[in-house]
Amino acid sequence: KKGNYEHYMEKEIFEQPESLTTTMRGRLIRGGESKLKSVVLGGLKDHLRTMRRSRRIIFIGCGTSYNAALAARPIIEELSGVPVTMELASDLLDRQGPIYREDTAVFVSQSGETADTLQALEYANSHGALCVGITNTVGSAIARGTHCGVHINAGCEIGVASTKAYTSQIAVMTMLALALGDDSMSSRNRREEIVDGLFDLPNKVKEVLKLDKDMKELAKLLTEEQSLLIFGRGYNYATALEGALKVKEVALMHSEGILAGEMKHGPLALVDETLPIIVIATRDATFRQALRPCFLLLTYSRSYALIPDSKQQSVIQQLRARKGRLIVICTKGDAEAVCPYGVSRVIEVPRVEDCLQPVINIVPLQLLAYHLTVLRGYNVDQPRNLAKSVTTQ
Ligand code: UD1
Ligand code: BG6
User: Of the segments 224-238, 297-311, 320-334, which one has the largest average pLDDT value?
Assistant: First the structure.
């Protein structure tokens, strides 16, 4: 049932505070006098030792599920110390890429039925890897065929464009990172902060959903465009890819997610005063504000000025220098710092723990894709040529 909503996609975007709560229910430990704040993933507890000892963790998926794994990759590498590689299922199969007994292969799939992912599972299994599933559908082929796994419990998702499953997948993979890092004392504070961040995440998603009207306004400005670029890096490289996937699959508009670090190696040639560009520049290690001494000539006194010291700010400046039509997604309160020369539009989002920021940052882009689709008059829930679950190769 769509309730008060016009489309399932809209309903599922707005359901995210609740779906995230269900995903985390019973899995977060609040901590206390003698207890540490931590996580419990019932389906993995007997396999964590094997995963920690594996030579590498390979994430395998298609579409949005692949993007969710990409968003979680940095925190899994940080907390587990195990190298993480990424595979689009079809590409792994085309290459018949090497997989070993010492590997852990993690299969990410909302439906649990995607043909390429399922075949990659058979392939990894036959090579002796530990196969772990992250699925939304209990009893699905991938849930049954993996040695162990985690159900994301996001509830049934009907819109072909995945929304709430994406944010729940990231939440589960962040919990996986916490579980893998559970044996390390040195990361204890970091892990406890992330657990706190997870507890508060549904509230922060509620807050970011208030941008709905702003995103509708922005969609009106962009309705007639042919193309939209989205730049992100670090934790939010995945956000750029996933935002662009939403825009192309439902709004039927060409859109490309680009790693901002690659900007100078090609994409910069596209920038002119007409092409709209979204830059994700929320606070993390790629965006910091530094206080640097500067000398005032007149008084010879030393004072301090805010000088851009972040990779993403320098990306914004370079795009501005080429007269790019910029829309910047930044942390609440950073609008002025982010746009010293003024940009077309700023979208301010609440700040959360860096590794959880992709969950917040994707929401305005989901809303933008939704409104663009409605304004352009296309089918929101069943985009042409696409299926919710691709069970043939
Ligand atoms: C389980 C119960 C849940 C109950 C909770 C109480 C199920 C489906 N879940 O949740 O209803 O409230 O215990 O402690 O009965 N698995 C895979 N591959 C996958 C996904 C899961 O093999 O892709 C396996 C897991 O290893 C586990 C089982 O399926 O053995 C259930 O997984 P999950 O629902 O995530 O476990 P719990 O959260 O413990
Ligand atoms: C299809 C869907 O292409 O399959 C996408 O339209 C989805 O939304 C992709 O991301 C992968 O599906 P699943 O079920 O394996 O996560």
Answer: 224-238
**Residue bearing the CA closest to ligand 1, atom 14:** 42
* 388, 391, 392, best to mutate for ligand 2 pocket (most atoms within 8 Å of CB): 388
Q: Whose CA is nearest to atom 2 of ligand 2?
A: 388
Average pLDDT value for the chain: 92
Provide the whole-model pTM. Answer: 0.95
Q: Where are the strands (E) in the chain, listed by range?
A: 28-29, 38-39, 56-61, 84-88, 103-109, 130-135, 148-151, 227-232, 254-259, 276-281, 289-295, 302-308, 325-331, 345-349
For ligand 2, residues with CB inside 6 Å are 62-65, 109-111, 114, 117, 160-162, 386, 388-390
Distance separating alpha carbons of residues 204 and 206, to the nearest angstrom? 5
Q: Which of 31-40, 285-294, 301-310 has the lowest mean pLDDT?
A: 301-310
Half-sphere exposure of 368 (CA within 13 A, CB side): 28
For the Cβ of 232 lying below 6 angstroms from any atom of ligand 1, the answer is no
DSSP strand pairing (345-349 vs 325-331): parallel
Check whether 343 has a pLDDT greater than 90.
no
Query: Does residue 293 carry a pLDDT above 60?
Result: no
